[in-house]
Amino acid sequence: MAKKEVILSGMQPTGKLHLGNYEGALKNWVRLQHEYDCFYCIVDWHSLTSDYEDTSDLQERIKEMTIDYLAAGLDPERCTIFVQSDVKEHAELHLLFSMIIPTPWLERVPSYKEKKEELGLDSYGFLGYPLLQAADILIYKANYVPVGKDQAPHVELTREVARRFNNLYAEVFPEPQELLTTFPVVPGVDGRKMSKSYNNDICLADSPELTASKLKKMFTDPQKLRKGDPGRPDICPVYDLVQIYNPDYEEVCRRCKTGELGCVEDKTNLAKFMNAALAPVREKRRELEAKPDYIEEVLKNGAGRARKRAAETMREVKEAMHLR
């Protein structure tokens, strides 16, 4: 049997996941686990680049994220689910990479420049987080990294790191490729991109009633004030969600444009479809919440498998660098 190609992806432990995480990444991860050898990481070290001042709830956030991983359909028998800091080889490889990679390579990463200005971050760890990402990917010799176009520069940097190491020492690392994914637009209730930092999210763990309540407050076309007014679905955040969850979205579009459909009715229908789609995930989530020992077991077993693979890579790295 041919050996499966490897995929690495991860999320920072923000706790309970929202629809943006689910539609933008998790659904795709569930599909990929049947086709590739997948490593799905909870990157707690990365979270410290910005959330280092208060880590008191870090373990709770990790637990909640793991529950959502599993509730969404990730199968620990088909993929490896683990916490980054449980595999110390990530840090070891990052340290070795930091010795050979020029600082300007890190400073030119677009997201580094953007977040530095937006969040005022300027730590050594923040500068090096793209290199830690490269270590996350290369420690498993990943062939592909599922990303959107905005994250493609990170994978390009990883290829450059692999190329530099291979040229200096020996051919140890493959050059991973982007597995570009077209993510659906998932707006928050205020119309901006759904994000916990904006407090505009709908969580997988939300009850049907809370989901409906949040949708009821959601921004719509500012020119459609009442039923009868013609709407503009192409600029309406609610319609972005309708296209994901309502199979009759084309009819919704037509009725909105003619004024036949009011925003209240539209949101009510959307809530029904959304809650129906999320019902199996939420049911699985409730079952998992009652099994804390199982959650720990999943992470422990995943870390064990990840460490085994990572140790093999580090053995090759050290031999190539004459460190052992």
Helix content: 40-55%
Distance, first to last CA = 34 Å
Helices and strands: which structural class?
A: mainly alpha
Radius of gyration, taken over Cα atoms and rounded to an integer in Å: 22 Å
CATH architecture assignment name of the largest domain: 3-Layer(aba) Sandwich
Tell me how many strands there are. Answer: 5
Main β-sheet, in a few words?
Answer: 3 strands, parallel
The name of the CATH topology of the largest domain is: Rossmann fold
Instruction: Count up the helices.
Output: 13
Weakly predicted, low-confidence segments? none
Q: What is the CATH top level name of the largest domain?
A: Alpha Beta
Tell me the β content: 5-15%
Full CATH superfamily name of the largest domain: HUPs
Count of domains: 2
Quick structural summary:
The chain contains 13 helices and five strands. With 324 residues, the chain is mainly alpha-helical.
